[in-house]
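debug: dumping io for the single-chain case to check the tokenizer round-trip. Nothing else runs in this session.
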Amino acid sequence: MATILNRSALRQHFRRIGRAIYFRLPAQWRDSLVDFSYRHAGSLFSGFPHYEMWRGRLRDNQITQEIPGAARLTDLSKVTPLGVAPGRIAIHAHVYYHELAKEFAGYLRHMPFEYDLFVSVTSEEGRRASERAFRNLPQLGALRVEIVPNRGRDLAPMLCAFGEALRGYDYLAHIHTKKSLYNKGATAGWREYLLGSLLGSKNRIGRIFALLHHGTGLVYPQAFHRVPYAGSSWMANRAAGRALCARIGVGYMPQGYFDFPVGSMFWARMDVLRPLFDAGITLDDFDVESGQNDGTFAHVVERMLGIVARDSGKGIAILRDTVRPSWSAWRLEQYVHRRLETSENLLSDPRLSLVVFDVFDTLLTRPLVDPEQIKAVVARNAGGELGAAYLRWRVEAEQVARGRAGRDVGLAAIMVELGRLAGLDEDAVARLQDLEIQAEVASVAARPDAAALFKHALAYGKRVLLASDMFLPSTVIETMLKRHGFDGWHGLYVSSEIGVRKDAGALYERILQDESVKPGQAIMVGDNEHSDLQIPGDQGWRFLHVMRPVELARALARLTPMIEDVERSGSLDAHIGLGLLVRGMFGKLHYADGFDAASMAPKPDSRSIGYAICGPLVFAFSQWLIDQARASGVDRLYFLAREGQFLKIVYDRVAANLPGAPPSAYLVASRRALNVPAIRTLDDVLAIARSHYGPGPLEDFLLERYGLLLDAELAQLLSDKGLWEKGRLVEVSPAGMGNLPEVLEALMPAILAQGERERPAIMAYLDRMGLGDDGHHAVVDVGFSGTIQRGLNALMGGGIDGYYMATLANTVVMEQQFGVSALGAYHNRAPLDDVPLFINKSFVAEKLLSANDTQLMRYALDDQGVPIPEFRELTAAEEAVFPLRAAIRAGALQFVDEAIAVRDELLPDFRFPLGLAARLFESFVADMSPREAKIIGGVMLDDHYCGRGIVS
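debug: decoded output
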């Protein structure tokens, strides 16, 4: 024990010394000291939050740095510099701190192209200093220096003082003498980082102009590594941002974290920024300067730079920080590398007596990309004119009710106002109120990590309060919490009942007064960057930020566009479907063991791939299948081996207790077992041969496709006819089959004889499975050409339809021949000359849906005439995959069960969109991360039918 204590004391001693040295060093040396200390004496810092974050950043960066597009960052080293100026260039420099003018001149000397310089200053001294520093710069054309009011900081002069002149240029850079004095040096080096990224060398500027010239709208550096990640959200600026978006006519306002130049330095095409310059913004729009660190019109405009660039369609290039690399444009490594121990230690700190937890999106989460979509759930459950009236008036009713009361109000008051606005009677209003409460209660689930922190705070004897800006009655919120295992708190503050809110700051003041504690003795645990982090922090509280699952997901390159598309124009089903998936994958609070931003899940393994990719794919397909089968009057669905085994398991879960859903059966069949007994003509033989094969020996081809043993007599027959020589390989591809048709024609008698031998057994099996009765039957499989469906129809005389994940256009021939249908859910009759990615990468889908069973070769009759299946022998390599396949299935079934719960408890007519499920799958297969590829590569499948043997 003494040794442990001594070591702990030694570590703390070195840490104190290190911190003292750190803050005495010039800012530009500090990071180097930290790196050196952590690399060479890491054991002394193990367990300290900053060290663990540093170590995690290195690990995760190694995962993503070589993967194109993994983090939506641009590597300038891969861009060829532009040698000639592509148009008229202007630079605006706001020189508030005139002593930095010479520093700025040093950067501007790197300009390789002619430009005009516009300088705004706030004093005569600043004007003289700027003119001295800038007048003799190389490549400088016109120099214009103006004294401007100290209002709107760097952005007001750009728009208001120089706006008219700047509109005439093609390209614009905006820089300013940033010091950020309010944070006491916490972001030291930020200005130098931004300037170096944008103007660090002639070569660098040339590369930036190459991006701009080729269509990029806005270029700026990745967020500085010392800037808190929460700064990449709206913070205190959402309401003003919404107003400015409406004023400018922006079609899509980002909801959470989004891309914009934090620090407001950038290069841009002027046509991209024109909406800001055309908005009629005047100096009066900007706040009077009083040292604000957020919440001003200038902070709104800073965010609008990224929004107008994205809205223009020209896009944004965020320059990767190569010195302090990170996968995250927003520096989310600050969050994801926070350890559980760090959070627990923060809550159990003896200096703290009060722990306050936010409720929604912190302790409880909804399966929605946008939580406001819960109103759409209520409207759909209400249905008809009542649902339409609710959706039309619900938001306005809340605003009016608040205005009347002059404070926050509860659901009952909102519903009274809704009834008045919509002209509804008391019964209708009461029904809507009940539906809204039911939807809210049914939608939430606990965040397990948050529950653990909640219990940790209680276990350490802290006084634990809950606080929520919410219209629901506290009794309903208590029911929600207790239903999901939260109990034992000491108080619940609900804004609608006490009349004050967190997002206005008054609720925090109320809590401190009621509890008789000082701000430094209290900590807030919550998700909202403004109301749970910024406001209590400004009041002196400590805080522990908990990110919403959707915001973590938004940071991943492959999920970002899906989330934005759903927010922009997605259906309610898409909001729920993607929201459910995101909640399941990103609900954790701590990722100290790794956060793989190159993958679809933060920590990819076989179970998470099953959950995120396979689960939506099979659930959406099952819902489509039920709808199609019910509409067509199908009596029974036959799921085809082997992929159909898992499809049937999922179908049976989804269809349980649904009226009109046809019963299912598992049909142990294969192309090999059905096609050979169905052969009647040479065309039948050639149809079997046309599937891709090889290259491989003729003997194997004949055995796999036709069950035909190429004995010495048949080999001699082919040799005598000059059709095949020993050792020659068979290869079937889109380019053709060579003389294989002539070979098969010569072997036709032997092939027909083999089919005759196999036919009685397969017919007996199909009859036992009920396919011989008069019912309406359909087969179900992955797809794509309906080969097995064709064989069944040939044997049974037609009448068997097919439902598939996808079909190719060549199914039409089979449909017409037998008078049946073959429908694809994700792609129907896809053109052969433009095969979609879903089908091109179908082998991945087959791996996700594969079974442990080996390939069926044929049926034989035993002594009692019972059909007995004959399977290919199982190999050790195939057996080794069983645990991995079980994990994939477990993950998929977890998602399926959660989606069924949403349907049964929240939205009865919920349909996971087929397009979203397909997009998830296609995004996954299009650019798998190394860890994803390794997992998928570990699933072995036999493909002897195509001559490939066991394939990884």
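debug: round-trip ok. The CA atoms of residues 881 and 939 lie 6 Å apart.
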